[in-house]
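pls design
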């Protein structure tokens, strides 16, 4: 017997043996996978993509240092301006990483009552373009079934709007972002996905059993795909077989590879998640000594803002732990993107002319701001750069800092790793989301700092807030690449996010119909025939 014949017989017997468990597994993961596509395509969508913007005008305002001193605030995790309801800006002060934020009016230093909730409502109405009443609002400090860890951001305000559709917004006020938006339909689809695709109903203490069972079931899909390919290669048919067997075989030429891709990448993801349990890596920086920022930036505001469209001001900690004012410059209107830039040393002229340090001209318009539903969905995953470059001023003296974002990014990464700069292998500005820096981080631009030994990881930091946004170990990167391109099919990015999900959905439906349904039908017929044959044989033996 030839090797080809042996291979054909072996693969055929194993393909039949795996038919029942593999068919059931394909139904479970195929149907639950479709719920994820349905959430992306038909889930609630924000009406506005870009966050609210407002030019900062602090001329004649009360110095923020005085406001903080009056309130007895000597340290804060973050101090920065944010767009205010009705126009203008407010000072946002984050006393602790896990609590509500406080807001002060620049003009007189007065505090906004219940400011964080009001800011969350303002942001939610901006993104969703709704004037519905709010049924309930609460600060959520932990992930749960409706707002799982994949959303990354905490704390968030959970705002439930009036209406029968269960519209709920999760707002992260520190980044002025809509962290998530749900309605009744999406919540139900999400429950199905979590129950059937990731099996999150399994108790934490039995997670090992979840991993084993899923690995065996999805492994049966991989084995079915491989034995199916072996049959297609070793068994040649001159004409199509009749009925379900013929359609099943023809579909195999198209669907065997997608089945192998989904199942193999799924198993890889399962094992990687078991070895390194996933979770949010977001960490706020250490409290900044805001009391040392004595220089009133408001006094020289007219000179600082001359010829510049200033989008934000933040009080951050510099590379040498000195307090700095970060003056964020707005990009050109309707501008997206923006590449890597270098903050070279600039020599300040008298009266803060900042010669050699004005980066506004560095921003180049790349594309129009997304406005339609399709453009918003696309940009939400790809990411765009929402603000421009920055100028740094010493908060104690008012002098322009020669160092810039690169130095600050290295300093932030150093604080979170404890590793020397000699371990750094690369630093770059990230202005778009990717498989390594996921869109669910909601924060752009960020700086990527790559480390060799002993860290062996990439850190993504936000210099505007001193935040560690994400940390990706080198060992996790291959799996992220495989999961992104092989499981999610992000290699289809040239066709756009909408078309990509439609194509994946069509293949998933085809796998369910031609592989699972027809395969289970053939398996049932085979089992019924085998049972009747056994019954006839037993009857024949009894008659003897």
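designed seq:
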């Amino acid at each position: 017997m030839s090797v080809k014949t042996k291979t054909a017989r072996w693969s055929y017997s194993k393909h039949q043996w795996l038919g029942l468990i593999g068919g059931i597994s394909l139904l479970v993961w195929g149907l639950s996978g479709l719920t994820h596509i349905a959430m992306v395509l038909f889930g609630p969508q924000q009406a506005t993509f870009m966050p609210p913007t407002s030019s900062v005008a602090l001329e004649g305002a009360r110095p923020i240092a005085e406001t903080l001193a009056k309130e007895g605030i000597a340290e804060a995790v973050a101090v920065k301006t944010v767009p205010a309801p009705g126009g203008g800006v407010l000072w946002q002060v984050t006393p602790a990483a896990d609590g509500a934020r406080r807001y002060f009016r620049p003009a007189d230093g007065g505090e906004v009552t219940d400011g964080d909730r009001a800011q969350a409502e303002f942001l939610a109405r901006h993104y969703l373009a709704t004037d519905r009443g709010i049924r309930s609002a609460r600060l959520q400090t932990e992930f749960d079934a409706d707002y799982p860890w994949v959303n990354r951001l905490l704390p968030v305000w959970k705002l439930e709007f009036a209406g029968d559709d269960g519209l709920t917004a999760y707002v992260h006020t520190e980044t002025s972002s809509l962290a998530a938006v749900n309605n009744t339909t999406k919540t139900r689809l999400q429950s199905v996905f979590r129950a059937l695709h990731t099996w999150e109903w399994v108790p934490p203490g039995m997670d090992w059993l979840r991993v084993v069972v899923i690995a065996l079931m999805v492994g049966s899909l991989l084995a079915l795909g491989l034995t199916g390919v072996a049959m297609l290669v070793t068994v040649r048919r001159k004409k199509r077989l009749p009925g379900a067997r013929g359609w099943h075989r023809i579909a195999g030429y198209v669907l065997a590879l997608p089945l192998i891709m989904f199942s193999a990448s799924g198993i890889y993801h399962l094992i990687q998640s078991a070895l390194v349990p996933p979770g949010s890596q977001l960490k706020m920086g250490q409290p900044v000594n805001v009391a040392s920022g004595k220089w009133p930036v408001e006094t020289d505001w007219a000179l600082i803002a001359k010829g510049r469209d200033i989008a934000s001001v933040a009080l951050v900690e510099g590379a040498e732990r000195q307090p700095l004012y970060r003056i964020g410059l707005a990009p050109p209107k309707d501008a997206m993107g923006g590449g890597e830039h270098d903050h070279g040393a600039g020599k300040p002229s008298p009266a803060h002319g900042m010669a050699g340090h004005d980066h506004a001209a560095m921003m180049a318009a790349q594309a129009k701001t997304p406005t339609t539903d399709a453009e918003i969905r696309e940009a939400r995953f790809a990411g765009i750069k929402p603000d421009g470059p920055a100028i740094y001023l010493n908060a104690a003296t008012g002098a322009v800092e020669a160092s810039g974002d690169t130095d600050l990014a290295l300093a932030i990464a150093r604080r979170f790793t404890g590793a020397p700069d000699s371990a750094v292998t690369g630093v770059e500005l990230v202005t778009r989301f990717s498989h390594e820096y996921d869109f669910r981080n909601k924060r752009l631009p960020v700086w990527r700092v790559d480390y060799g030994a002993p860290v062996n990881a990439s850190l993504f930091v936000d210099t505007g807030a001193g935040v560690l946004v994400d940390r990706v170990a080198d060992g996790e990167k291959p799996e992220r690449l495989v999961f992104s391109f092989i499981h999610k099919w992000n290699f289809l990015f040239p066709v756009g996010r909408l078309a990509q999900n439609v194509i994946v959905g069509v293949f998933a439906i085809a796998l369910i119909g031609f592989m699972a349904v027809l395969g289970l039908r053939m398996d049932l017929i085979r089992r019924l025939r085998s049972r009747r044959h056994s019954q006839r044989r037993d009857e024949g033996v009894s008659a003897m």
